[in-house]
Write a structure and sequence with these properties.
By secondary structure, the chain is α/β, with parallel strands linked by helices. About 25% of the residues lie in helices and about 25% in strands. It is globular. Bound molecules: NADP nicotinamide-adenine-dinucleotide phosphate.
Length: about 350
């Protein structure tokens, strides 16, 4: 089988190779999945340059956490799946419920082999059924980006509900899922972006308030103004310490921030004063567990949500897909069709 592998110690795109590996077999309690699609996340870029948690990968590692495929065979004793089921692997392995512990729960595409491969073997507890309304390409978008947004909005603190206002930063994968979940429950969505064109696309997907953060470097003041001084109920904070002070300035009473990402770089100031003034909370979000994934998939089916896919690349063009994703020209998800 073919797979895209980052070699041990790799620190650049030059360290990625398409390799031929022996097709794996499902052992007891395992499933063999014929992969049909994978998708990219910001974290994959960090892994490739050796700057994700813990530094460069220590062994040759198949890239990407996110993928979807069809169960081709099941090993002895498997009860959760049968041949023909449409599945996705869970980001963390061995995490049916509760918080992730990276020392105990390997993560696909980093401490465990990932999804950019023709075949994958998973323990049956490390996979979920895809929502019935999604294609493989759409299902491949769910394990990291979608579940992270879902965790921040629906699991941590008070779930976002009808009438709430959610602030989403930028138009990447996590934020676009945040937009779709907000609209599904009847919440208002504010989106920031560096691009008016992307804002227009976000508006066509249901975004209610649009702010260009390049034109409005003090975008927190715009958020306050455009919410009639009330502020927001939830921030899906994908930018980190570079923006979190501004995000805190956007909070309404009893609001929450899901602390997720690092897009705005490693430096910044953070004064938590407005948490005190609004009775708000910051929740650390590390993707999510299998129970959350299954609950999210149920909601995706009920609300007939379809992931926003920017572009689909062929398997052989995976390096081009990574280059496109790195350029941040995308809105939503970049997908690789495996076959
Ligand atoms: N904690 C977790 O479990 C977890 C899980 C998933 C992701 N993450 C993190 O969440 C972040 C987002 O991941 P992703 O995969 O959704 O990223 P992505 O798809 O690569 O998002 C890229 C987009 O983010 C926006 N952006 C970049 N810098 C920005 C800034 N300074 N201010 C506002 N927007 C900015 C840009 O949108 P515009 O072009 O519209 O400006 C850019 O196109 C990353 O830091 C990732 O590591 C963490």
């Amino acid at each position: 089988m073919k797979a895209f592998v980052l070699k041990a110690g790799g620190t650049s795109m030059d360290d990625i190779r398409m390799v031929e590996l022996e097709k794996p077999q499902a052992g007891p309690g395992e499933i063999l999945v014929r992969m049909h699609a994978a998708s990219l996340n910001f974290r994959d870029l960090g892994i490739i340059v050796g700057k994700y948690f813990g530094g460069p990968v220590q062994k040759d590692t198949i890239l990407t956490s996110d993928g979807a495929g069809e169960v081709e065979a099941v090993g002895e004793g498997v009860t959760r799946f049968k041949a023909g089921d449409r599945v996705a692997g869970t980001f963390f392995q061995g995490l049916a419920d509760g918080p992730a512990n990276p020392m105990v729960n390997p993560a696909l595409g980093h401490s465990a082999d990932g999804a950019l491969t023709e075949y994958m073997v998973l323990k049956e507890g490390d996979a979920v059924m895809l929502p019935n309304n999604l294609s493989y390409e759409e299902g491949a978008c769910l394990p990291c980006a979608a579940l992270t947004a879902w965790h921040a909005m629906m699991e941590a603190g008070r779930p976002v509900a009808k009438g709430d206002t959610v602030l989403l930063l930028g138009t990447g994968g996590v934020s676009m899922f945040g937009l779709q979940f907000a609209k599904a429950v009847g919440a208002k969505a504010i989106i920031t972006s560096s691009s008016d064109e992307k804002l227009a696309r976000a508006q066509s997907l249901g975004a209610d308030i649009l702010i260009n953060y390049k034109q409005h470097p003090d975008w927190e003041k715009e958020v306050r103004k455009l919410t009639d001084g009330k502020g927001v109920d939830c921030v899906v904070e994908v930018c980190g310490v570079g923006t979190i002070s501004k995000s805190m300035e956007c909070l309404g009473l009893g609001a929450k921030i899901g602390m997720i990402g690092v897009l705005a770089g490693p430096e910044g100031e953070c004064n938590p004063r407005s948490l005190m003034m609004t009775g708000s909370a910051i929740h650390g979000i590390f993707v999510g567990n299998r129970r959350m994934f299954e609950e999210m998939n149920h909601a995706i089916e009920v609300h007939d949500i379809h992931p926003v896919i920017d572009k689909v690349f062929d398997f052989e063009d995976s390096l081009e897909a990574i280059g496109h994703f790195k350029s941040q020209a995308h809105l939503g998800k970049v997908v690789i069709r495996i076959g």
